[in-house]
Predict the 3D structure of the following.
Amino acid sequence: MPELPEVETTVAGLRSVLLGSRLMRVEPRRADLRFPIPPDLRQRMTGATVTGLSRRAKYGLIETDRGDMMIFHLGMSGRWRIDPAEIGAHDHLLVETDQGRLLSLNDPRRFGSLNLVRADAWSGYAPFTRMGPEPLGHEFSPAMLATALKGKATSIKAALLDQRIVAGLGNIYVCEALNMSGIAPTRPAGRISGARLALLVDAIRTVLTAAITAGGSTLRDYARPDGELGYFSKQWRVYGREGQPCPCGGTVRRRVDGGRSTFYCPTCQK
């Protein structure tokens, strides 16, 4: 699943094409993805001018001068394509601008979503009301994390994947940050010292920033809007590297937790 860096990269690519442009054509090509597409999306978005693009957790936000905001989630295999050579069966939304640019939201598995809310009420969108702070924002700190984790017996990996604690973290970057900070993924979340939480917060920021700079990781069908694949996967410390050397010299292992693969190094992660 595209994670925070991939969505950030996608929004940056869309911003270069959509910001300030008038949407001459907005055409949903089916009635639903994972959830129904708002039936009035075409009417409300066609003719509007894009005034802002941003991200919340793993969602992209496209705001218009009509006070509307289209919220998209890429699901498991979604991606935006800019000026595609041809339109295929998995291009489920077409957007054409007054500059003659064509964009398509392509989602073969249809686990993504599209919604439409009023821009002045976007924070009340149901998924957002239950989310914690952004990991790259000022609210995310060792003190905040210590408070959120206090008394929790669940593993630190499961806690970091809980969007109510911190928004936007996913399996890949949690594995990477835990390795970078030397914390075992199975360690009880409420039993990690303040000093180690400070290392963890710094590692989360470092790995996310590096991934965004690198353009997002290559994940099966994931590509940036310009069609270029991300390449942060070449920098992975442990994710997908079972049996290979950890930067510390130990050997990366894999375990399955809750149906997800966890990659870690038992030598340096305690």
Notes: DSSP finds seven helices and ten strands in the chain. Helices lie at 4-18, 41-45, 126-129, 142-149, 156-161, 171-181, 194-214. The radius of gyration is 20 Å.
